[in-house]
Design a protein that fits this description.
78% of the residues lie in helices and 0% in strands. It is mainly α and 130 residues long. It has one domain. The radius of gyration is 22 Å and the shape is elongated.
């Protein structure tokens, strides 16, 4: 499960609700046989709103989610879990990830998190010397 940043989800949700209103206006314009220029303007507005929502979703929700996941992984695996090289490479690649790469990295970090958790569950606890 992914824990999306709530404030950023709120922002994207607001954009999508605005888009729903724009789509309804487009439907109404079509049903009223409005002039083609008005319908075209509504379509352009919808495209712009959808692109803005998509960009916010990737930049403000998914990218922040991935950053938080990578930070958690780095804390869980300070250098002895067998996956430290992969985690370090994620951190190097992070600033330049495209939207498609971002989605793949979220999947990869979910799998890596599972592997690290399994490793930590098997790892013996340090003994306390008296």
């Amino acid at each position: 499960m992914n824990d999306y940043p709530k404030e950023n989800v709120k922002q994207v949700t607001h954009r999508l609700k605005s888009l729903a209103g724009q789509l309804q206006a487009l439907i109404n314009a079509l049903q009223k046989s409005e002039v083609p220029e008005k319908i075209h303007h509504q379509i352009l507005s919808c495209e712009k709103a959808l692109n803005a929502a998509k960009n916010d979703l990737f930049d403000e929700v998914y990218r922040k989610l991935l950053a938080a996941k990578m930070s958690q992984l780095k804390e869980k695996c300070p250098g002895d879990c067998g996956n430290e090289d992969q985690i370090d490479q994620f951190l190097i690649d992070f600033p330049n990830l495209s939207q498609d790469q971002l989605l793949k990295k979220i999947k990869e970090t979910n799998l890596l998190d599972k592997a690290v958790n399994e490793y930590l569950a098997r790892k013996p606890l340090p003994s306390i010397k008296k």
